[in-house]
Design brief:
By secondary structure, the protein is an all-alpha fold. The protein has one domain. The chain is built from 3 helices and no strands. The protein has helices at residues 2-5, 8-37, 44-63.
Amino acid sequence: MTAVFFNLDTTFSSISFGALVAFISVNISVLIQFSIVKKQVNSPHEIIDNIIMLVMGLLSVGVM
């Protein structure tokens, strides 16, 4: 029944929005897991891998 109310543009927009929200959620959960729970930010390499790369992913989604 919902196919009657939604056109194709609305459906694609909803799917794209859901994908962006999922990507943001994964980045935030990994950021929390590695930087807060496991405290793996001891070396510069770990800081780049566990914080900077994830923040860059969040920023790239924010630009979209």
